[in-house]
From TrEMBL, chain A:
Name listed for the protein in its UniProt record: Xanthine dehydrogenase small subunit
Annotated EC: 1.17.1.4
Pfam families: CO_deh_flav_C, FAD_binding_5, Fer2, Fer2_2
GO molecular function: 2 iron, 2 sulfur cluster binding; FAD binding; iron ion binding; xanthine dehydrogenase activity
Chain positions covered by the region annotation Disordered: 1-40, 173-195
Entry-linked InterPro entries: 2Fe-2S-bd, 2Fe-2S-bd_dom_sf, 2Fe-2S_ferredoxin-like_sf, 2Fe-2S_ferredoxin-type, 2Fe2S_fd_BS, Ald_Oxase/xanthine_DH-like, Beta-grasp_dom_sf, CO_DH_flav_C
UniProtKB/TrEMBL annotation, chain B:
PANTHER family per the UniProt record, alphabetical: ALDEHYDE OXIDASE 1-RELATED, XANTHINE DEHYDROGENASE
Protein name: Xanthine dehydrogenase large subunit
GO molecular function, a single term: iron ion binding
E.C. no: 1.17.1.4
EC supergroup of this enzyme: oxidoreductase
Domain Aldehyde oxidase/xanthine dehydrogenase a/b hammerhead, residue spans: 33-139
Residues that span the membrane, as ranges: none
Keywords associated with the record: 2Fe-2S, Iron, Iron-sulfur, Metal-binding, Molybdenum, Oxidoreductase
Length: 613, 780
């Protein structure tokens, strides 16, 4: 969960860990800078509950949680872990989506830098109840006995609230104009009011509770939309956000006085450029500045390692980095999968939530993989590009993106080059970015006729870091492997392809018994993974091969020939027998296709449930 | 003792309108709106300073010096405290074997060796990393086996022998050797350890502490400051979870905060960062068990010889009573006619392990349940049949190995009831059919029982006091020595007081636990919170109620037995008076409207030397049926369904009791599956944050999750007929673990290894890696 940031150091050779705290930054700060590099300094402005807040002269890495608890009067926001893993600090952040509509999302306040709230609205559990009554989300928690010690509860409430508001906004849009009232549109039957178990679990995936066993919290989540919608008109957010709208480029800077106001923090600038040209200018002037997108990794450098990060350049306000565009193709994709392979270009500021949602229809077999990536609040904050630029060997996006043949668009001062992801990683946390260069976007090929799978293994289903991840992409011709790419995580110092194994697989007949044995043996020996707290090297090697076998079994079952017929009939019989005995909870009627149906065993490996020898 | 005449066991003494219903947790409305105040949320007095620990990076060594100058020069740093600065004793802990700050020797990675006091928590933490300790390394002992080898113990070994074990083994048709290891467990209270120390006038100190045992914190702080106990006041309104982790070990945090406050004469707050909390504080003891067991053709146990060894860490803490309780619960639900248990309390250079829900009981239960499982596989019997045949029964099969007769055994009824209700037999057959055709996903089902002894095994702790105040507007406060950590104790006590006084629940407010109100209170532990404090509060309320009734009888000239109080009204022949009116009149007539209450558990006694007696007032029972699936390609597991039938006596608050059962069960499943503590070779705990240590999430809990309460009241006279519920359900998690073993057995069935030995070599936690290994493993 901590591997999703854009911490692409512009100069890997000069870590900023030991930069002197106040004096250097202070002098830099007072020195006039070139006009394009930093606009006028100004406070950051945001809404906190029902009040407008303005903060200036804060350390650039001050977290939202620290500010809320120590200055903002928000004791309702709890620190449970300060690393984005427990959810006790969850708050709801509202901004405008690509269509200009308010969107409410849960994020972890503990690793969110305060500057990233500029122009947004923040709510915590103390903000959503009125003086007289609890919010329906809160009331549902009380009614379902969803709190015991209560410490995690405000965070759960806000994760639930974000889902509630998303549903309420959709319901509001669905009702549309004043003539859309239809007979029988009884509020209790609005589809938006039904919260499926999977939707509830996804909303709660970033929150730990040690007391309840979760059952009553899931019940409350599923029940919370039953009462009439409660909350301000969604248009209120447009008005409010307009009042705090971000303007100008540099947001704030802190000087020598930061030590007096925030002892323990270091001074520096927080840059929020609003265009790529401004961003380039800042990077030209401050090549040491730390680029941050979601801060889901860099946040921990601050909260856990207490590193002095120095100046921070945040990508979240750069307009050109927000979008996703389908493109007819590009050279790298053509080289990997052939001419005309379409590409989805995803900007560096696009959240993992949005990026994965956009990719899912093209990668239906990856639904579970996407849900296992960290948690909802982390996916709301972190970015796909950040996860790739970070280059952690245990990040979850790199194996899949290597498999797909993704490339990165690197930008420096108006000049761009496109680097295949294969060539981007040079070594442990080293990449080929040059000074002043940043990753503007990732281009994800979406080839036709290629079967893509991604598998993750960790101690826990949700919100855990991979011990092993394996992604495979196969193109078959007449039942034979015509093209294959394999990406692995957790197996080496960097996310890697498995070229030797790929070579073994080329030309194999999918239906042939035992065809895979040599490739499995090759994959077991292709890497020398680490022994660590997540798994032993031996386990990683064995499981990497087993996951390739899983992909292979999936290919076999997806391939029509006669064998598959026998396979699925046996499986259907077994499924039917189970269902009749009432033994298995939610056996799927068919293969889990593109829908998010991930939390039952059957969905753990939907395809394998249908396979017999 | 001011206990009134005892009511009948099954007849409730009052018109119970609240008890037996499920009002929400007394603070639920505060929890959900973020308005419940935890220690860190209380407004800090002006000038509050913050304390951060400097942690040892060496597992064992001589402390030669601490360089503080660089840290002292950092912004915001006020003072750095080392052992030489301490105002009082430098020895703490139940065995007086822990330093406040080490002066000469460091004993684990993570041990606080100095304290940094600064103007912000951040500044203190930054500066703590700038303190450099010069430590001359010594050879550490880092595992149970290494400690056994070195005979390094925090307390002497204990041997309990019942019956003639050698003869029993010799006479057995079958004899097996086996072993089982069970991992430790981090409490992972969501609110980390914290204390706020406020210096007062005349050498006094007030401490707000997140603790299960304010009285112990009070004693420790007094010792550390070298002041009498009366000079220290400790208050705890609520904890954000405890689970045993704040029974003794909240004490050190409070002492560190208090020492800092004493030396700076400023309010000092110490809130541990989560990673520091993991590194500093103790966890559930990991255990290894090795045994020889003899049994007959039905799987009935005839004799057991067993070694139990616990990792205690660097100091004794509560390891003695914890390892004792493991001995007591090695029978779980089963009659063991001959058994010898050799219990070793191993000293290691790691965190000092401490209380955690179950308090050694789960580790003892683990051993016997592993034996039941091994026996069943060896004999090719249904494990449920082996468990059933070994259950306690009628005399002479009703005597525990520590000499207590099991008088209230309901398992012979409860276990088959659950098996029928969850369709165990049918599902077991369906699973076998599934496993015969499915090569990749294997399933398993298991039912395990639990019998858990209720009382502190140290008899003296089984006492409690409470204070009930009735105000002249009819509102009531209740205060008792128990602490609220989420378990709903305060809610239940309010219900008990409301029903006893005959008033509605909304009239009763609980106040923060405070050593100045109820002194010498025991820890809120051993599942005993409601049994002890609830009854003390009941007695206090009865005292006031009876005074009111006597006053009304006198004032209105009616006989006492014709007067009752219920639903905020006092009923007497031909008349009904509002409760508040009676209260005001009684006050005017100078009737005392407040009372204490005191309770000491009857019947219990225990001789530590002979290890015989009746340490428990009664037993709580339950059973769980779990179905799991395992992925034989990765070893990952999923819990598919759980059915629980559990005994809470007559429930005071069914929603709270079900919450305890569900929460305990899920915590138990976490302990046995995903929660793995891993130490590096140098003694550093590598899993020291939620990013690396994985407690269950919502998605780990099965959709089919049914909890049913057993229908009977407590057969012993206990408050409102209830039974304790905190710890026993934790052990229901074994059903999930042994269902995983079933699935592993199904995956192994065709292998040559399985043909040689059908037993499953899988210890806990059953991580994916452990499960995958077990599929191909040969039994040790």
């Amino acid at each position: 969960m901590t591997a999703a940031s854009s911490d692409s150091s512009v100069n890997a050779a000069s870590p900023s860990m030991s930069s002197p705290p106040a004096s250097t930054s202070s002098s830099q700060h007072s020195a006039p800078s070139s006009a394009s590099a930093s606009g006028s300094e100004r406070p950051i402005r945001f809404w906190l509950g029902d009040r407008q807040v303005s903060v200036d002269h804060a350390p650039p890495t001050l977290t939202l949680l620290e500010w809320m608890r120590e200055r903002g009067g928000c004791a309702s926001v709890k620190e449970g872990c300060a690393e984005g893993d427990c959810g006790a600090c969850t708050v709801a952040v509202t901004d405008l989506d690509a269509n200009g509509e308010p969107q409410v999302r849960a994020v972890n306040a503990c690793i969110q830098f305060l500057g990233t709230l500029d122009g947004k609205a923040v709510q915590s559990a103390q903000d959503i109840a009125t003086a007289d009554a609890l919010h329906p989300v809160q009331q549902a928690m009380v009614d379902c006995h969803g709190s015991q010690c209560g410490f995690c509860t405000p965070g759960f409430v806000m994760s639930m609230f974000a889902l509630y508001e998303t549903r309420r906004a959709a319901a509001g849009r669905g009702l549309g104009g004043n003539d859309s009232r239809q007979p029988g549109s009884d509020s209790s039957h609005e589809p938006g009011r039904d919260i499926s178990r999977d939707d509830a679990l996804r909303a709660l995936s970033g929150n730990l509770c040690r007391c309840t066993g979760y059952r009553p919290i899931v019940d409350a989540t599923r029940a919370m939309c039953a009462a009439p919608w409660q909350g301000p008109d969604m248009d209120l957010w447009k008005t409010r956000l307009a009042q705090v709208a971000a303007d100008g480029d540099a947001i704030f800077a802190s000087g020598a006085d930061v030590a007096a106001q925030w002892p323990g923090h270091t001074a520096g600038r927080f840059y929020a450029p609003r265009s790529v040209s401004s961003l380039s200018a800042v990077l030209a002037e401050r090549p040491q500045a730390r680029i941050v997108a979601g801060s889901t990794d860099v946040g921990l450098w601050v909260t856990k390692q207490h590193r002095a990060v120095g100046d921070v350049v945040w990508l979240g306000a750069v307009q050109e980095l927000q979008g996703m565009q389908s493109q007819p193709g590009d050279a790298v994709a053509a080289q990997v999968w052939g001419d005309g392979t379409p590409v989805l270009e995803i900007g560096a500021a696009v959240s993992l939530s949005d990026a994965l949602d956009a990719l899912l229809p093209h990668l239906p077999n990856c639904a579970l993989y996407f849900d296992r990536f960290a948690s909802t609040p982390i996916r709301n904050a972190g970015t796909l590009v950040g996860n790739l630029a970070n280059g952690s060997p245990i990040g979850d996006c790199p194996p899949l993106m290597l498999t797909l043949g993704a490339s990165l668009v690197l930008h420096r001062d108006g000049v761009e080059r496109v680097v295949p992801l294969d060539d981007f990683y040079l070594g442990y946390q080293k990449n080929c970015l040059q000074a002043g260069e940043f990753v503007r976007a990732v281009r994800v090929p979406l080839p036709a006729g290629v079967v893509v799978h991604a598998w993750k293994v960790s101690k826990r289903l949700e919100q855990d870091i991979s011990a092993v991840a394996v992604a495979t992409a196969f193109r078959l011709t007449k039942g034979k492997v015509a093209a294959v790419r394999i990406g692995v995580g957790g197996m080496a110092a960097v996310p890697s392809r498995a070229p030797k194994t790929e070579a073994e697989l080329l030309g194999l007949e999918v239906s042939e018994e035992g065809a895979l044995a040599t490739a499995l043996q090759t994959l077991r020996n292709e890497f020398a993974p680490l022994d660590d707290l997540r798994a032993s090297a031996a386990y990683r090697r064995q499981v990497a091969a087993n996951l390739l076998q899983r992909s292979w079994l999936a290919l076999q079952s997806a391939t029509p020939p006669d064998a598959a017929g026998a396979v699925s009939s046996a499986a259907t019989a077994a499924t039917a027998a189970t269902a009749a005995s009432g033994a298995a909870p939610s056996t799927p009627s068919g293969r889990a296709s593109s829908t998010h149906s991930v939390h039952s065993l059957a969905d753990l490996s939907p395809i394998l449930m249908e396979i017999t020898p | 003792m001011n206990a009134p005449d005892r009511p009948g066991v099954l007849a409730l003494p009052v018109d119970a309108r609240s008890c037996g219903t499920s009002p929400a947790h007394e603070a639920a409305h505060l929890h959900v709106s973020g308005r419940a105040l935890y220690v860190d949320d209380v407004a800090e007095p002006q000038g509050t300073l913050f304390v951060a620990p400097v942690l040892s990076k060496v597992a064992h060594g001589r402390l030669r010096g601490i360089a503080t100058a660089a840290a002292q020069a950092l912004p915001g740093v006020v003072r750095i405290i080392v052992a030489a600065d301490l105002p009082g004793t430098n020895l703490l802990g139940s065995a007086q074997d822990e330093p406040v700050l080490p002066a000469e020797t460091v004993d684990y990675v993570g041990q606080p060796i100095a304290l940094v006091v600064a103007r912000s928590a951040k500044a203190a933490r930054v500066a703590a990393r700038a303190v450099v300790a010069d430590i001359g390394p010594l050879v550490p002992i880092l595992s149970i086996d290494a400690a056994l080898e070195a005979e390094a113990y925090v307390l002497p070994p204990v041997h309990l022998v019942e019956g003639d074990v050698p003869s029993a083994l010799a006479a057995s048709a079958h004899v097996l050797k086996g072993e089982f290891a069970v991992g430790g467990q981090e409490q992972f209270y969501l609110e980390g350890q914290i204390a706020l120390a406020l210096p007062g006038e005349d050498r006094t100190m007030k401490v707000l502490s997140s603790t299960q045992h304010p009285g112990e914190v009070q004693h420790w702080v007094a010792h550390a400051l070298h002041v009498p106990t009366h000079s220290v006041q400790v208050e705890c309104r609520r904890m954000g979870g405890g689970f045993g982790g704040k029974e003794t070990q909240a004490g050190q945090i409070a002492v560190w905060a208090a020492v800092a406050a004493w030396l700076t004469q400023a309010p000092c707050k110490m809130r541990l960062d989560r990673d520091d909390d993991f590194l500093i504080t103790g966890k559930r003891h990991d255990f290894i068990g090795r045994w020889t067991v003899g049994f007959d053709d039905d799987g009935k146990v005839l004799g057991i010889d067993m070694l139990q060894a616990a990792r205690c860490g660097f100091s004794a803490d509560l390891s003695g009573p914890i390892a004792d309780r493991a001995i007591f619960h090695t029978d779980n639900a089963y009659f063991l006619p001959a058994i010898a248990i050799h219990s070793y309390r191993c000293k290691t250079h790691t965190q000092s392990n401490t209380a955690f829900r179950g308090f050694g009981g789960p580790q003892g239960v683990a051993m016997i349940e592993a034996i039941m499982d091994d026996i069943a596989r060896h004999l090719n019997l249904d494990p449920l049949a082996v468990r059933t045949v070994n259950l306690y029964g009628d005399a002479p099969r009703n005597r525990t190995h520590y000499g207590m007769e099991v008088e209230d055994n309901i398992l012979p009824d409860l276990l088959p009831r659950l098996a029928v209700d969850c369709q165990y037999t049918e599902r077991r057959a369906a699973i076998a059919a599934w496993n015969a055709t499915q090569p990749v996903i294997k399933r398993g089902i298991a039912i395990t029982p639990v019998k858990f002894g209720i009382s502190f095994t140290a008899t003296m702790f089984n006492q409690a006091g409470a204070l009930v105040n009735v105000y002249t507007d009819g509102s009531v406060t209740v205060n008792h020595g128990g602490t609220e950590m989420g378990q709903g104790l305060h809610t239940k006590v309010c219900q008990i007081v409301a029903d006893t006084l005959g008033i509605s629940l909304d009239k009763v407010r609980i106040t923060a636990t405070d050593t100045g109100r109820v002194p010498n209170a025991s820890a809120t532990a051993a599942s005993s919170g409601t049994d002890l404090n609830g009854r003390a509060a009941e007695f206090a309320a009865i005292e006031i109620r009876e005074r009111l009734r006597r006053y009304v009888a006198q004032a209105h000239g009616v006989s006492l037995e014709d007067i009752s109080i219920r639903a905020n009204e006092v009923h007497l022949p031909g008349k009904t008076l509002p409760f508040v009116q009676v209260v005001q009149q009684a006050y005017a007539a100078r009737v005392s409207l407040w009372s204490d209450g005191y309770y000491a558990t009857p019947k219990i006694h225990y001789d530590r030397v002979t290890m015989r007696g009746r340490p428990f007032y009664y037993f709580a029972y339950g059973a769980a049926a779990c179905e799991v699936a395992i992925d034989t390609l990765t070893g990952e597991t999923r819990l598919l369904r759980a059915d629980i039938l559990h005994d809470v006596g007559r429930s005071i608050n069914p929603a709270i009791d079900i919450g305890q059962i569900e929460g305990g069960f899920v915590q138990g499943v976490g302990w046995l599956t995903s929660e793995e503590l891993v130490w590096k070779a140098d003694g550093l705990l590598a899993t020291h944050a939620p990013s690396t240590y994985k407690i269950p999430t919502a998605a780990d809990v099965p959709e089919q999750f049914s909890v049913t309460l057993w229908h009977e009241a407590n057969r012993e006279d206990n408050v409102f007929g209830s039974k304790a519920v905190g710890e026993p359900p934790f052990m229901l998690g074994f059903a999930a673990f042994f269902a995983i073993r079933e699935a592993v057995a199904a995956a192994r069935v065709d292998s040559a290894d399985a043909a040689a030995d059908a037993r499953v070599s899988l210890s806990a936690p059953a991580t994916p890696e452990a499960v995958l290994r077990a599929i191909s493993a040969v039994h040790a």
